[in-house]
Amino acid sequence: MRDMRFTDEELLLIVERVDKTPQWRSWERVGGESGRDLVTIHPNASGAAPIRLAKSENGAYMATGFGEWGLTVGASLAELLDVLGPDTAIVV
Prior knowledge:
Blueprint: H1 8-20, E1 24-31, E2 37-43, E3 51-55, E4 61-65, E5 69-72, H2 77-84
Antiparallel strand pairs: 1-2, 2-3, 3-4, 4-5
Protein backbone atom coordinates (compact mmCIF):
# COMPACT_ATOMS: atom_id res chain seq x y z
CA MET A 1 0.00 0.00 0.00
CA ARG A 2 1.20 3.49 -0.84
CA ASP A 3 2.13 5.94 1.92
CA MET A 4 -0.87 8.23 2.43
CA ARG A 5 0.95 10.79 4.55
CA PHE A 6 1.90 14.21 3.19
CA THR A 7 5.62 14.73 2.64
CA ASP A 8 7.50 17.71 4.03
CA GLU A 9 7.54 19.20 0.51
CA GLU A 10 3.77 18.81 0.17
CA LEU A 11 3.19 20.41 3.57
CA LEU A 12 5.43 23.30 2.55
CA LEU A 13 3.31 23.76 -0.60
CA ILE A 14 0.14 23.81 1.52
CA VAL A 15 1.67 26.38 3.89
CA GLU A 16 2.71 28.59 0.96
CA ARG A 17 -0.72 28.38 -0.69
CA VAL A 18 -2.62 29.14 2.53
CA ASP A 19 -0.33 32.12 3.16
CA LYS A 20 -0.94 33.44 -0.38
CA THR A 21 -4.72 32.91 -0.39
CA PRO A 22 -6.50 35.68 1.52
CA GLN A 23 -9.72 33.65 1.64
CA TRP A 24 -7.96 30.93 3.66
CA ARG A 25 -7.30 31.65 7.35
CA SER A 26 -5.30 28.65 8.53
CA TRP A 27 -4.62 24.95 8.15
CA GLU A 28 -4.03 21.96 10.40
CA ARG A 29 -2.73 18.43 9.95
CA VAL A 30 -4.29 15.47 11.72
CA GLY A 31 -3.30 11.83 11.50
CA GLY A 32 -6.27 9.82 10.38
CA GLU A 33 -7.18 6.16 10.11
CA SER A 34 -4.60 3.67 8.83
CA GLY A 35 -1.76 6.20 8.81
CA ARG A 36 -3.56 8.60 6.46
CA ASP A 37 -2.92 12.31 6.94
CA LEU A 38 -5.81 14.73 6.80
CA VAL A 39 -5.14 18.43 6.24
CA THR A 40 -7.94 20.88 6.95
CA ILE A 41 -7.91 24.36 5.44
CA HIS A 42 -10.08 26.87 7.31
CA PRO A 43 -11.61 29.63 5.16
CA ASN A 44 -11.92 33.22 6.40
CA ALA A 45 -15.58 33.58 5.48
CA SER A 46 -18.04 33.13 8.31
CA GLY A 47 -20.10 30.00 7.72
CA ALA A 48 -17.78 28.67 5.01
CA ALA A 49 -17.11 24.95 5.07
CA PRO A 50 -13.57 23.81 5.77
CA ILE A 51 -11.67 22.04 3.01
CA ARG A 52 -10.14 18.68 3.87
CA LEU A 53 -7.24 17.26 1.86
CA ALA A 54 -6.06 13.65 1.77
CA LYS A 55 -3.99 11.33 -0.39
CA SER A 56 -5.69 8.32 -1.88
CA GLU A 57 -4.25 4.81 -2.00
CA ASN A 58 -3.46 5.23 -5.71
CA GLY A 59 -1.40 8.38 -5.04
CA ALA A 60 -3.99 10.90 -6.21
CA TYR A 61 -5.08 13.80 -4.00
CA MET A 62 -8.63 14.38 -2.83
CA ALA A 63 -10.40 17.41 -1.41
CA THR A 64 -13.71 17.27 0.45
CA GLY A 65 -15.84 20.16 1.59
CA PHE A 66 -18.84 22.22 0.55
CA GLY A 67 -21.41 19.74 1.84
CA GLU A 68 -18.96 16.80 1.67
CA TRP A 69 -18.56 16.51 -2.10
CA GLY A 70 -15.37 14.80 -3.24
CA LEU A 71 -12.89 15.71 -5.95
CA THR A 72 -9.82 13.81 -7.08
CA VAL A 73 -7.52 15.57 -9.51
CA GLY A 74 -4.64 13.57 -10.94
CA ALA A 75 -1.52 12.93 -8.93
CA SER A 76 -0.47 16.55 -8.32
CA LEU A 77 -1.18 18.39 -5.09
CA ALA A 78 -0.33 21.70 -6.79
CA GLU A 79 -2.98 20.98 -9.45
CA LEU A 80 -5.60 20.26 -6.79
CA LEU A 81 -4.77 23.47 -4.92
CA ASP A 82 -5.03 25.36 -8.24
CA VAL A 83 -8.52 23.95 -8.76
CA LEU A 84 -9.58 24.91 -5.24
CA GLY A 85 -8.02 28.34 -5.71
CA PRO A 86 -8.98 31.50 -3.90
CA ASP A 87 -12.70 31.26 -4.67
CA THR A 88 -13.41 28.33 -2.38
CA ALA A 89 -14.96 30.15 0.55
CA ILE A 90 -18.44 28.89 -0.21
CA VAL A 91 -21.02 29.35 2.52
CA VAL A 92 -23.07 26.22 3.21
